[in-house]
Amino acid sequence: MFSSSSLADLPKPAQYAALLEQAQALMSGESNPIANAANISALVMSSLPQLNWAGFYFFDGQELVLGPFQGKPACLRIALNRGVCGAAASSLQTQLVPDVHAFPGHIACDAASRSELVVPVLRDGAVVAVIDLDSPAHARFDDEDARGFEALASLIATRTRTADDDDNVRITS
Questions:
Q1: Domain residues of the chain, as ranges?
Q2: Whole-structure pTM value
Q3: 4-171 — its CATH code?
């Protein structure tokens, strides 16, 4: 595995290829969604520069519920029509926000956050979770970051069973 300093020195496509490889290794053989999300959020936070929050919200069929994360305390529940996470979950599309203060309805959990990237984790066309990233840097995220996290979300989705499968949303291998 790469160290966080060596990963940050790589060009973004290589960063995300390495991050994806590490995530796959971390989730190999583990079916618990909390354990996997905890490891992925720690991996992301320790590997990528200029983040002040990295984590998951899981969709419980009605709203997004806080999952494992790295950073300051966050909102416990988010309605599908609220904030950047709610927009990503309800639209089923990545939300790349260069300036959170310009995003209508932004939920400010950490006043230091300036930009945000939220990527839905989709299975069979339905949202099961979102990956949420915050940065204290204005316009920290770009299209390469979005593509990198969309690839990570796809990997996570291949290990996720929906509530319809067994009444539990969980990551499986």
A1: 4-171
A2: 0.89
A3: 3.30.450.40
